[in-house]
Amino acid sequence: MSTAEERLKILEMIREGKLSAEEGARLLQAINVGAKKAQSGPMREPRWLRVRVTDVQSGKTTVNVNLPMSLVNVGVRMGARFIPKESNFDAEGVMEQIRAGAVGKVVDMESNGEHVEVWVE
């Protein structure tokens, strides 16, 4: 039963005299608290953007950066200046994915002998 249906049921019970106004108010309040917990439940906001660049030939990690999500917008704007024009990397597309709530790997590509991985945790 949805929250709206539960509210209607409680209001009908009050109208029919099966519940007092006080009891109904307590039940409605409990439904509101339960709905807020369900919304905030296991889904957490992503906290980190992780970037790892690995040399394809040696397998050695050359870049390993963890950025707080609060700095990602600034970092992408600053870093976008250093992306070569001939690159097919779409920084704005990645940002749209992140804003839409993407979690996990958002970039996995090879370019100029380097393997680039970006993911959100």
What does this structure look like?
With 121 residues, the protein is an alpha+beta fold. The protein folds into 2 domains: 3-40, no CATH class; 48-120, no CATH class. It has 4 helices and 4 strands. The chain has a 4-stranded antiparallel β-sheet with strand order 2-1-4-3. Strand 3 and strand 4 form a beta hairpin. Helix 1 (3-15) packs antiparallel against helix 2. The longest helix is centred in the first third of the chain and has 20 residues, at 21-40. The radius of gyration is 24 Å and the shape is rod-shaped.
Could you tell me the strand content as a percent range?
25-35%
Main sheet makeup: 4 strands, antiparallel
Say how many strands there are.
4
Low-pLDDT residue spans: none
What class, by secondary structure content?
Answer: alpha+beta
Tell me the series of helices and strands, N- to C-terminal. HHEEHHEE
Domain module count: 2
Separate helix tally: 4
Average pLDDT reading: 80
What's the short story on this structure?
With 121 residues, the chain is an alpha+beta fold.
List keywords for this structure.
121 residues, alpha+beta, 2 domains, 4-stranded antiparallel beta sheet, rod-shaped
Write the layout of secondary structure elements.
Elements: H1 3-15, H2 21-40, E1 48-55, E2 61-68, H3 69-80, H4 91-99, E3 104-111, E4 114-120
Antiparallel strand pairs: 1-2, 1-4, 3-4
